[in-house]
Batch of 2 targets.
Target 1
Amino acid sequence: MGRVGTRAILPIWLQVFVGVEMTAVIVAAFLYVPPADGFASPECARIMIFHVPCAIIAVVAYIVSTVYAVLCLTRDEMASDVKSAASASLGFLFTALATVTGMIFARVEWGTAWNWDPRETSILMLVIIYAAYFALRGAIPNAANRARISAAYNILACLVMPFVMFVLPRISPGLHPSEVSLSPEYREALVGAMLGYVIIYVWMLRLAVRVREASLARRR
Amino acid sequence: MSLRGAVAVLVKDARCELRSKQAISAVLLFAVTSTIAVSFTLGMIGSDAAVASTLLWVVIYFSAMAGLGRSFAHEEETYTAGLLRLAVPAESVYVGKLAFNFLTLAAVEVVTVPLFVLLTDCRVARVGAFIGMLLLGSAALSAGATAAAAMVSRAASKGALFAGVSFPLLAPALGIAIAGTNAALASSPAGCAADMRLLVYYCGVVITASLMLFRCIWEE
């Protein structure tokens, strides 16, 4: 692994852009986007603008973490382990946010915060996978063993996740609507939020990698 | 991978177990106690096929958690893991341990399942499918639990960690086994066949991935 650099984590213009863009998304979510028809609480449906990108980023972060886990095992390098763990930590954060925003929406829309809907259960499984991944990492003292074993666990958990998608609809019927007709303002706000969340994820990932690299360099 | 090595690991574990009877007696006692506790509760409130199949697999799952985690931890505690690494290829160790874990779980089920059926007065509509589901479900639990046990054996706190690390890997198999057993109890051949196919796919994916990853988990 190379020396910890002093380069900017994200170009300044991109930092300014995401600040302005996300402010615009938040303002638009409350002032520009109209209440959504077909929901029990049309006003509360605005939470989708923040909930959906959170859930998508949580899954993307897990896939990125698994890709780096594969690289860690095939190339046998610690840098990939650092990136894999950093992406997993962000995935855990976004999964928690998606769970909380989803529970708020479920409480208003379906009457209870938790309904064992297949998508709710999938995100809960992701929370448990992340929690187990970090518990395993924390319990292995040797750095090389920790990198290899946690990468193997990450890959194995990723491979069994598709079975969850097959099984859950058989156990419990879904409450999430399969088709939602939203106004164009909603789609614009969702696309804007998605773009902002992607940039924030990349920013936080680079920051988390830098922090972990500095921590490793300090230990040496 | 050497098949002779895998058989040697299985025979070694079986001989050690027959001499000490530590794992099997503890797991059997746990399984029988929990079966009686569950049956006692069910006897008072009554049950349908869905409740009975869920509780049966909960008993089997926790019995697996009580016993299968020992397979690798014992090698580390008695300092025989190093010798095993020198004597047998990593893949043979996985296959040998997997076979031993499957046989242990099958031995537990030989006692607990008839006891459960007797005590809960549970009607099994399709006996062949029920036994097939138990065998496939046990193979799936053993496949995931053996890989998890190997990972946890290198960690500092093995006992508590094993259940947490295993659950995300085993949850899909547990869900499929419950749905399939419910179908076998309620005489639904189509559902049972679909779940058996899913369990075969699950075993194929987990065993293949574990064989590919096991060298990274097992070797120093």
Target 2
Amino acid sequence: MIEPDRILEIVAAPDAGSAPGGLLLDAREVTKAFGGLVAVNRVDFAVPEHSIVSLIGPNGAGKTTFFNVVAGLYHPTSGAITFAGQDITGRKPHEIARLGIARTFQNIRIFANMTALENVLIGMHSRLTADPVRIVMNTAGVVREERAAHDAAHRLLTFVGLGRRDHELAKNLPYGDQRRLEIARALALRPRLILLDEPAAGMNPEEARRLMEFIRRLRGELRVSVLLIEHQMRVVMGVADRVTVLDHGEKIAEGTPDEIRRDSRVIEAYLGKAALS
Amino acid sequence: MARGGAGWLGWILRYRYALLILLLFLAYPLFDHNAGHVNSAADAAVFILLALGLNIVVGFAGLLDLGYAAFFAIGSYAYALAASPFYGLHLPFWPMLLVAAIIAGVFGALLGAPTLRLRGDYLAIVTLGFGEIVPTVFLNLPKYTGGTNGIVGIYQPTLFGYQFGFNPRPYYYTLILVIVLSVIAILRLRDSRLGRAWLAIREDEIAAASMGINLTTTKLLAFSFGAFFSGFAGALYVAKLGIVSPDQFNFTVSFTVLAMVVLGGMGNVFGVIAGAAILYEFQTLFLTDLTQWSHAIGEATRIALLTKLDFVNLKFLLYGLGLILLMLLRPEGLFPARRITAIMKEHQHEALATVEIGEAPVAVPPGEDA
């Protein structure tokens, strides 16, 4: 591990565009319908700055669909999303990524046939400035920029604990390392908000505990806000400031982990009516 | 990849084999006094340039383009129209070489634009269409392009008063120089942020877009650079030949260049050079020789069949057989890029044991986790 302030230089987003009311992400009445199926129904959802919030719900509740709407993979059927005061509704994925929202995927989507280092360099793509003409001329500026980018990518890999795997093809990394690599790649965007889609899936309790610690470091050391979809309740309850529960595309509860734990509608959604009687 | 720390020396060491082969090719016309052979080597060099360009589109960015001959045609006509009695223009060759490449590159982006949303088979079909449309347009606009007669009497290049004429040697050396410069440019592109973005969209478009890569510009740049190098090839090709007509750019050209890329190893710059050289010499020299040997053997042994065989006419049958064998024995090509080997092995494992993948789902088909 390396000292936090060095890594801050690499990943800290410029604090440009302050968030109105302290809300970094503000989604209002977001609806996404696929034909007749309403996957997300008029959901209000907000992520305060420097917070860790979690989105939970049974399978098929619309969590990932909501993620994909925020990240620009789907256009919302209706509703509006603002990020750091800017309207991002219906923008393209790469534009949203460049504004400072990075994500990971439920089924890891690293670039399998590229090295770990190259994966992270892709995350830096939009910050690098070399254009084709200068690349072909191999100008001093391009050489310098590439060298700095390789160096920064290596330090990011070190930050997530992959400092010795720079030149390993991503597909050859063990599963847990692939998840870390995906997070390192997302951090390379210098996001202000990172969306983690089930990062603890397939992890044993010890790995999950280390992941919780890591998520806290993201906020503590890198000052990145975290929006977390997770099925392992231990992880959600352990790291999230606030939890929102979706069921059948609708928001059924919102509150601190303790409030959610006691909420009867949540218990019903997860365990069925019988559990309450 | 990190650059060789020792500057020039490191660079020379890294590419020592390529440089050695380059020296051999530079020396070759000094030993072979048969102008026909040198001419055929120059034609092979044209195809090497084409294969280098197509490799950017197919090998780097993973966009299957079956109509690449269209850009070869556009580059060829760009020079032919600018330096022939047809319009009475005589623009100088050297600047036109670059202009032809730029025109081809612009058309690469223009014809690439409608295909941006397409992938795989659909992309292949649409590019196949463009590959047929472009020569047909040249064929059916006789007022502007000479139609079926094409354009004749294209002016030959001069360099400081030296006339290139019909001697293949100066063309051969010019082509080698252009290839060397192209290879340097392509290697630099490959190792840049743009080259990485090409690989990323080949791997997973959704993940690439989510990482801030603009799919539209990245793909258009791939089409455009791919076409750019075919513009060099076109201008040099028609300058050497002195004539251009639409039938020089039919589907077999697109197909042959693609076969060269696949044979050499998609994504490997030096591999596709070898693939192009091997395939071109195979079809021009080897098949002619083989026909002669077969006739000689047939006459000596009095086997009538052998005296009647003409292997040059059987070219595409042999291509087909060769490609089948290649796909069975070495699907990643003769000189695969490291990554392609990895991808091919992955597909093999998937085919053999889908159960075994277990806890590490690496290759997610696009759109799956939506």
